[in-house]
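Journal club prep — side note

Before the paper discussion, L.F. wants everyone to see what a predicted structure for a comparable chain looks like in token form. Sequence:
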Amino acid sequence: MKRRLETEMLDVLPADDPAAVASRRDLARINAVMRQSAILAGALRTFAQPHVLLDLGGGDGRCLLAAARRLSWRGVRAVIADRQDIVSAKTRTGFAALGWDCVVRQGDVFDAAATMEWGTLVSANLFLHHLDDAALKRLFALLAEKAIGLVACEPRRGALALLASHLVVLLGANEVTRHDAIASVRAGFAAQELTALWPPGWTCLEGRALPFSHLFVARRYGI
């Protein structure tokens, strides 16, 4: 299946649109079914605790918070980079309860990548598939300048995941989520596609993460 990008409905709806609000609730359920927070936490745990964790396209922050609850880290500054500031007070309180400081970097993720601190650990949940190969290569080059690593959990492009994307209706997903789930899988990744776009000189791990995800971990050599 060839990778195909198309505009996802949630990306163009206003943050307070009722359909967008409902779709974000759907995504929380889908993240749970896909085990996204568990997969992210397991990969993040292979790194030493960072001072700063930059979450690209982190949305409402709930997936990162769920991952953080699986870690024993304290004193981390979570920077959620997104076009919209939709992190609720409840989610911020959840980070505070873990001893984390949560801040939102609203704007372009490329700017966030270009201005992040040296030694930042970067995460991404269901975000990289929104970018074409040229944009991914540009983003990866920026991250590789200062990051100690990247952990990304993305849709797995393949027949099984595509079938599952058609079944989100069984979770009560609305029209926005039903459209975007299928589009996400078609824009997802397989094989070593992300590794091929990452700058040389790093240790990269890439492959299937059950049940429907694709995990990519890039680690600065020697970290």
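L.F.'s comment for the group: The CA atoms of residues 50 and 163 lie 37 Å apart. Keep this in mind when we get to the figures.
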